[in-house]
Amino acid sequence: MSRQKKPSSRPGGRRDAGRPRGAPIEDAVLSRTLEELVEHGIEGASVERIARAAEVNKTSVYRRWPTKGALVAAALERVALELGGKLEDQGSLGRELEALGAHVAALLESPLGRSLARAAMAESVGVELAALALREVDRPREAVLGLRARAQARGEWRDGVAPETVLALLVGALLHRALLERAALTPGFIASIVEVIAGGLKPAGVRSE
Amino acid sequence: MSRQKKPSSRPGGRRDAGRPRGAPIEDAVLSRTLEELVEHGIEGASVERIARAAEVNKTSVYRRWPTKGALVAAALERVALELGGKLEDQGSLGRELEALGAHVAALLESPLGRSLARAAMAESVGVELAALALREVDRPREAVLGLRARAQARGEWRDGVAPETVLALLVGALLHRALLERAALTPGFIASIVEVIAGGLKPAGVRSE
DNA sequence: CCATCATTGCAACTTGATGTTGCAATATTC
DNA sequence: GAATATTGCAACATCAAGTTGCAATGATGG
Questions:
Q1: Measured from the CB, is B144 under 7 Å from any atom of strand D?
Q2: Are B47 and B58 contacting, i.e. CB atoms less than 8 angstroms apart?
Q3: pLDDT class for A96, splitting at 50, 70, 90?
């Protein structure tokens, strides 16, 4: 997905001659692109500025990545926002949801995470780019599965509630607060939404607090 | 907030002379701007295209609204997305939340509503514009207050849960589904999130289903 | 060592968008 | 009918995306 000017198979000639593409350029440009994303967001990012800052000619950038979207996508591909993937057993569904919520909140309050979340929801970005951003923002998806298994074992997860529903509620509420209302994701807020979600998940009759 | 070249008080001269600004132009441009927003989103909107379609010179547009942001803001100001504001008493909290959710879902599935929601969360738009879009998207805020009063009277709303929390959960989950996952807001989905929220709101011990 | 060949930098260019400016034509009010 | 403000028009500046041709550079294979 990177190179495009294929050396191709020249009929009668040397196969591996010529100057190879510089890996340093690739690195410099992509990492600078990430900084640009953080600073200016995905719409405000400028290829020329990226090239200048990476001390590379604009042409060399365009030779590798044909459009700004492709460049941004390539930069995002190497991001792996670590989500402390392994949410451990916290003893109760409420505590686990709160830990997960805190992780997502931290992500949404970081410049890169916020930028990614907006990118995933923007309209102008291509579908592939949106999918890429979504992959990062929605990383907790995996975590929820383990969480549900433990909650079911504890009798804290009523039958018939899909994990996606819980994810939408938890992440959605954080998105609403962070991006729409532009308010801070305080521990108090996280606790209040988790309280409602955990309460709504409990099977009828089982009430512990 | 519209006119800017004030006729001012000329010392010795007529006060109200000259050609007045044409209201038809204002109307044509603003309504065309809304269509442009629906078609191209807030970033992709082009002032030149708007002017052409409204059969008005670009200059005349810029004379009234100094920037694209101001133009879009002015267009949004005259929008009043009616939310069937008066959600009636539906007999139970669950049914009321479902009705409210259905309203918001319909809004989020309409082109203009979707465009507004994205605008409210975008980064590049000015603060004033974001606030304007938020005002429309978050219109259910008022409805939730009446809803809570009735739910409290029915004993379906546990003490200490803020209406904002419920709004964030409900609207947030819909945003997550519609904009992030880009999936349809089916009645089934709405029912599933409402079920969890309503369950989580009930006071301990009160379980009806 | 050296010819080959791709990569690189450089400069100029096209296109489309925002926003500005000067001017002549027009419409309106006094 | 004179004064005055708006309008259309055309030209302009600026900036970002993306393209193209060319000369210089550097790796590689022989």
A1: no
A2: yes
A3: very high
Indicate the pTM of the whole model: 0.84
Is-contact B45 B37, C-beta < 8 A?
Answer: yes
What's domain B23-79's architecture?
Answer: Orthogonal Bundle (1.10)
Fold of A93-206: Tetracycline Repressor; domain 2 (1.10.357)
Tens-digit pLDDT profile for residues A99-123: 999 999 998 998 888 888 888 887 7
All structural domains of chain B with their residue ranges: 23-79, 93-206
Task: Please indicate if any CB of chain B lies within 8 Å of the CB of A171.
Answer: yes
DSSP symbols for B131-196: HHHHHHHTTHHHHHHHHHHHHHHHT-S-TT--HHHHHHHHHHHHHIIIIIS-----HHHHHHHHHH
Closest-CA distance, B167 to chain A, in angstroms, reads 8
The angle that helices B163-175 and A163-175 make with each other, rounded to 10 degrees, is 110
